[in-house]
Amino acid sequence: MADLGKKYCVNCLADVTNLRLRCTDCPDIELCPECFSAGAEIGNHRRWHGYQQVDGGRFSLWGPEAEGGWTSREEQSLLDAIEQYGFGNWEDMAAHVGASRTPQEVMEHYVTMYIHGNLGKACIPDNIPNRVTDHTCPSGGPLSPSLTTPLPPLDISLAEQQQLGYMPLRDDYEIEYDQDAEKLISGLSVNYDDEDVEIEMKRAHVDMYVRKLRERQRRKNIARDYNLVPVFLGRDKKDKEKEKPGITKEEKEQRIRLRGLCQFMAHREFEDFFENIHKERVLRAKVRELQRYRRNGITRLEESAEYEAARHKREKRKENKSVVTSKRGKEGKDGEFAAIENLTGFELLSDREKVLCNSLNLSPARYLTVKTIIIKDHLQKRQGIPAKSRLPSYLDKVLKKRILTFLTESGWISRDTS
């Protein structure tokens, strides 16, 4: 009676009670794994027919020598978990396999059996002739969850992680750039009765989604390369205190103006570019200095030191002369203009006009009247309008000539008119 509950392979009559493969197209066709893998055909059964696995989930896929006693059901859950959660998320995979497995056990079993075991050696050989370099996995691992170079997690505290919504194990944020990008593909499904136009539309949606992911990753790389996260958190204040003292205000302003180029250059490239601009500015200033020496007849660098010393002395003399002139001007205001400073229109005169009126013994009001008439006649003559000069009777030829000469030298009227 005990044999009535057993199942046998219809091809080799082996005991398949623990594990058998049943044909979904032919009734009562159940094969052992060896006959199924060999493609056995019996009666109307063909090797391409559909099949399903029938077992209690208690046998070991790797044999009795495998460590841990992993059953076939746990193996299947492990493969489903790594497809769903990705390589490296051992905690989520352990929860998917079952409470009896820890993340460490899941990691060791998968790495031992599926990567470094016989299956991994058969699928991932060490040396392959003419093998193309896999740039999507720079760390050398056989499975990489990302199409880009993985970046190390940010070195920030737990409070700062909560402030940013940052997940260090995934190197993601709770709110990413273009947060609604996943809506492009969330409703897509593959149907065998889709027309060509519908398939192309779905491919376009996938392409748009991939571009958004690349842009998201590009922004992350820029933020990481230029160290923008510490700036956002306020850590850059200490760095500003340690900033080089030789940086001028113009260089800081130029760096701000060139900030838009950061998204097209790496940080090292941008620093080299800015350094080259600074070198160019220094070279241009040196060229202008050498051209100035050449215009002043200096052809050797040894002569430039003597020229600079002489120029410094000249500028010093001019500075001392201007100081003396300003002192004399202040003294003149106290005593020289005493005769006209209380008259009407004195505050409307410039310093030179005050000296002129004082020397001509002419009141400011009369001078302003004569100045207005002369300038008005000058403008009419330039416009081709005939004008008769009606100067006041108190203005003689000497006064008129002195005033005309002063206005001409000051640029109020042209020389040909005067």
Would you give an account of this structure?
By secondary structure, the chain is mainly alpha-helical. Among the domains are: 72-123, Orthogonal Bundle (Arc Repressor Mutant, subunit A); 152-234, no CATH class; 346-410, no CATH class. Helices cover 52% and strands 4% of the residues. The protein has helices spanning 33-38, 72-85, 90-97, 103-115, 118-123, 158-164, 183-186, 196-225, 228-233, 236-241, 249-257, 267-295, 301-335, 351-360, 364-382, 397-410; strands at 19-23, 30-31, 51-55, 166-167, 172-173. The strands form 2 sheets. It has a 3-stranded antiparallel β-sheet with strand order 2-1-3. It has a two-stranded antiparallel ribbon with strand order 4-5. A hairpin with a 4-residue loop joins strand 4 (166-167) and strand 5. The longest helix is centred in the C-terminal third of the chain and has 35 residues, at 301-335. The protein is rod-shaped, with a radius of gyration of 47 Å. The model is unreliable at 137-148 (pLDDT under 50).
Produce the secondary structure layout.
Blueprint: E1 19-23, E2 30-31, H1 33-38, E3 51-55, H2 72-85, H3 90-97, H4 103-115, H5 118-123, H6 158-164, E4 166-167, E5 172-173, H7 183-186, H8 196-225, H9 228-233, H10 236-241, H11 249-257, H12 267-295, H13 301-335, H14 351-360, H15 364-382, H16 397-410
Antiparallel strand pairs: 1-2, 1-3, 4-5
Helix pairs in contact: 2-3, 3-4
Task: Give a quick set of tags describing it.
mainly alpha, Arc Repressor Mutant, subunit A, three-stranded antiparallel sheet, 5 strands, single chain, about 425 residues, 16 helices
